[in-house]
Amino acid sequence: MIRDRQRATNVAILAVFCLAVATTIEAVAQASDGRFRPLRFVDFVVIIVMFLTVTLIDLVKISVPQTTFNSIFGVGGAAFVATTIGYGAIAGIIVAGISTLVAELFARREFQKLVFNVTQLIVTAGLAGITYQALVGDTTHVPLSSTKTAIAALIASLVYLAVNNILFSFMVGTAIGKSPVTIFLANAPGSLLQNITLPPIGLLLTTVRELSPLTVLIALIPLLGPYIAMRGYREIQLQIQRTIEALADTVDRRDITTAQHSERVANYTRQIIDELGTIRFAEAEAIILAARVHDLGKIAIPDAVLLKPGKLDEGEYWLMRQHPVAGDDILQKLSIYKDSLGVVRHHHERYDGRGYPDGIMGEEIPLGARIVSVADSYDVMTSDRPYARARTISEGIEELIACKGTHFDPKIVDAFVRVLNRQHAPESSAQRAPAPSVVSAPVA
Ligand SMILES: [Fe+2]
Asked: For residue 28, what are the domain limits?
């Protein structure tokens, strides 16, 4: 399956590359019909400065991580729109292509990602420029100076946004085996700010150059505002997530036998979600985020209880059963976990209602909590613990099946058993459960 995805990704990259070549040929053909305003020396200066600005911005662009892929936030889009509409598709292609290439080389991006990111921007900027030129007829008019040019500029901006988002969704979807529509919807909230603000700024840049081309250089400076604000916001979000996950890992490592437990549970959770295939992308992300820190509340459990090798007494058992509530209390204060709360609080509920902390049952238990419950229990069963040796994969599967309808949601057990059977068949009866692989790598 991974090999199939790799092959599909290569074909998709080749398709985008061919599209970039076709776009460039069309842009050259369109520009060679002589209806375009010749560029002055000062225009070249502005284009070069625009190029340098975009390149510098690209070098420090913001990665917006999700559990499955990374979105990128940068303000280069404003300069791409300004160049391709203000100075023609060829200028847009050159600025977008070369600046992205330089940024990708500095970032030492893998060859595949480099080719995709460069060609994606060439197609995006090129098609926007071609659209504007085709609608206006020539480049002697100032964008936004008449209804006709304003509408043409607006349509060209929409082409820029649509092509950019569609190609990104298409490529990421191909690489990770998800529908492009799913990726598009998942990426939309994170990219909304740049999608709404950057094209208009680009259009204003093309207009102010009529005052004096060098005015564009001054007008580029305010771009730093949204960039710095977004960068700070994203960094804080990322640092919060990393801190919480580091705390969860620290809790795991308090007991040598549970090291990396949360990481494995998150990966089992992802596999179950993929197998079920019916959970919306955003909900899946929230469940996986929660699975990664599901035992965070154990931070409130003293070593004497958490690491006790023998049976817990009644008081100790009560204390232990408070950890989902303690985890929920911590995460409630953090907005990035606002959709993950029920998962952490209810991951020890049972399908028959005999679990804790609230004793809810069946479909009352949040779907994510029912999934994490299965993933968590399987990892506990198949790992060595102070009180029990690790069970084999077969024994783990048998136990999951035996607890269908009592401890676990039957359809989730069925999905996970299908995953495990696929991964481990034919399997030696003495084989122990290996750690699942880390999540799929981000693409762009
Ligand atoms: Fe737990």
From this structure: 2-223
Side-chain-side CA neighbours of 310 within 13 Å: the count stands at: 2
> 353 C-alpha vs ligand 1 centroid, how far in Å?
16
pLDDT of residue 280: 84
C-alpha 348 to ligand 1 mean position (Å): 6
Residue 442 lies in a domain: no
Distance 373 CA to ligand 1 centre (A): 8
In a shared domain, residues 210 and 302: no
| Centroid of ligand 1 to alpha carbon of 295 (angstroms) | 5
Chain segment 258-296, per-residue pLDDT in tens: 788 999 999 999 999 999 988 888 888 899 999 999 999
CA of 346 to the centre of ligand 1 (A): 9
Residue 70 host element (H or E): strand 70-73
pTM here is 0.69
Q: Measured at the alpha carbon of residue 252, what is the angle toward residues 247 and 255, in degrees to the nearest 5?
A: 135
**What is the per-residue pLDDT across 356-396, written as a single tens digit (0 to 9) for each?**
999 999 999 999 999 999 999 999 999 877 666 788 889 99
| Coil/strand/helix, residue 62 | strand
- Residue at 200: amino acid letter: P
Give how many domains the chain has, as a whole number.
Answer: 2
Residue 324 C-alpha to ligand 1 middle, in angstroms? Answer: 6
The alpha carbon of 377 and the centre of ligand 1 are apart by a number of angstroms equal to 9
pLDDT averaged over every residue in the chain: 81
Whether residue 323 sits in one domain with residue 262: yes
Report yes or no on 433 lying in a domain.
no
Give yes or no for a contact between 30 and 133, defined as CB atoms under 8 angstroms apart. Answer: yes
Q: Are residues 190 and 52 in the same domain?
A: yes
